[in-house]
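Researcher: Structure for this, please.
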Amino acid sequence: MSHASPQESTSRPQVAVIGLGAMGYGMACSMLRAGLIVRGYDIAEPARQRFAAAGGTVASTPHAAATGADIVLIMVLNSAQAEQALFGDDGAVGALSQPRGLNTAGSPPVVMICSTVAPAFIRQTATRLAALGILLLDAPVSGGVARAAEGSLSIMASGAPAAFERAAPVLDAVAAHVFHMGDEPGLGATMKLINQVLAGIHIAAAAEAIAFGARAGIDPRRAYEVVTASAGNSWMFANRVPHILDDDFTPYSAVEIWLKDLGIILETGKELQLPLPLVATAQQLYIMAAAAGHGRLDDAAVVKVYEQLARFRVLDAAKPTIPSQS
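Model: Predicted structure, token format:
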């Protein structure tokens, strides 16, 4: 049990970060730089070692990471992993529902779910946590690995005012923009899905556009220069096409992530009885990329679907390659 004074705890809350992948690691390091006390857990030993090398404290289980914590931040792949991290054997909830020490100053602990999951999962989890006296902050993020490392993410969050208040030191440490979506859990997750509708479609559109131009004989670097100065540009085009131009598909955000995210969007659309044909089309492109063996590559690798179908490479587009119609 911690013997820190309430005043010290207010200035230096204890945070457990469960999920030390590309995003979780950057967020945890941002919290360390901000002076927070951070314990991290990841199922992968190399991820734990990396965080330890960065100056963090690592735990052997989610339960151990959450013991004595004021805030537990979940940054895992999907709802199944979040469920396991919270409620599974050696889950964090078992530690949070224990009698609390002086470090909490009598306030309830907060679980921040930062993963992209379905709004229905957030609402169900909030109900389960509330029955144990634990607050939930629905807090998905956007900005990618670089902004996670900088502590400059965008967070679209919803939850009780008390949850926002308790989590404020973490939000300050990891985000440049925090958008309050309301008091109801699930609103943050819904807003993240809106963002993912656009992001997923824009990556697919960027790959299609650059492949189209290259196939027609336009130098792809010249096409990138023109589009980024023109009305057809998007943040995803500007950010992802350089991966194609550099022939570097290091997975900052992998193709398979979009199988999950777009699947959640389509399932939510079905619940709402709202057709989402552009999302469905984009999802098929990511499925094709994964089926071709590119699932673990950067999501810009969807361009390889076009290259394989048309038997050409974008970077080899030095002259028109459209087959003769004569």
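Researcher: Any notable elements?
Model: The CA atoms of residues 245 and 315 lie 7 Å apart. The domain at 191-316 is CATH 1.10.1040.10 (N-(1-d-carboxylethyl)-l-norvaline Dehydrogenase; domain 2).
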